[in-house]
Amino acid sequence: MGEKFSGGEFLNKRYPDIGKSEQVKLSHEFSSKKEANPIDTWLKSVESFHGRHRDDPEAMYHIRNTFHNKYVIKSEYIPESYFENQRRLARERGEGNIEITPERKKQFAEQIISDQKSSLDNWVNYLTSSEANYPMWAKYWALRNMVKFSSYDRKKKILACAINTRSIPFRN
Predict the structure, then answer these.
(1) First CA to last CA across the chain, in angstroms?
(2) Which residues pair with 160 in a beta bridge?
(3) Which residues lie below 8 Å from residue 90, measured CB to CB, with a gap of 6+?
(4) In the chain, what are the domain boundaries?
(5) Residue 166 DSSP label
(6) What is the pLDDT of residues 14-36, one digit of tens each?
(7) What is d(CA 22, CA 89) in angstroms, rounded to the nearest whole number?
(8) pLDDT score, position 168
(9) CA 115 to chain centre
């Protein structure tokens, strides 16, 4: 028969940086149940943590907040090209030349941030729920790709699967 599949090996091939992360190193160092691959040890600890805390609203708030801090754009990083695009779209919709005042920029930024948080929360809530019956490596892989690839859909007010890091720089 075939070898046992290692989600840690899968992730390490796709993200060579993961094995060097502080979380993986510490998890493996302090685990009483070490896997052959340190990433697998870390994945088991993350799965255990989420399993223990998925029904704790305060813990879930902190998990979501951690993702917000890492992946949701900060208003100062929204490029001027975004606002220029909003001006162009307003003209195309027949609204004329709208003025992009500091107050309007603030409103656009608040809407983007709110929409990104909401979409990201939906993903985190689902992936940490008991309904998401996938191995932890697959959840990590999905979330990591979700925040890396796709685009923000302003009309639908959602992140269409992900956050577009190519057009709007995100703080890492």
Answers:
(1) 42
(2) 151
(3) 96, 97, 98
(4) 35-79+115-160
(5) T
(6) 999 999 999 999 998 888 888 88
(7) 44
(8) 37
(9) 13
